Amino acid sequence: MHIAKPQHRPPQDMYCPMLQICNGCTHGICKFCDIYTGEPFEASPMEEILEDIDEIAQTATALTRRIYLTGGNPFALPNAHLVKIFDAVEERIPTVHSYGGFCRITDIARKTDEELAELASRGVNDLAIGAESGHDGILEFMRKGQTAADLVEQGQRLHAAGIDFTFFYLAGLGGDGMGQENALASARAFSAAQPNTILIVTLTPTTTWPLAKDIAEGTWAPASEVDTAREIRTFIEHLECKSSIICSHDSDVVRFNGLLPGDKQKMLDLMDNRIPKINESAARLMREMIHKATF
Question: Structure pTM?
Answer without folding.
Answer: 0.95
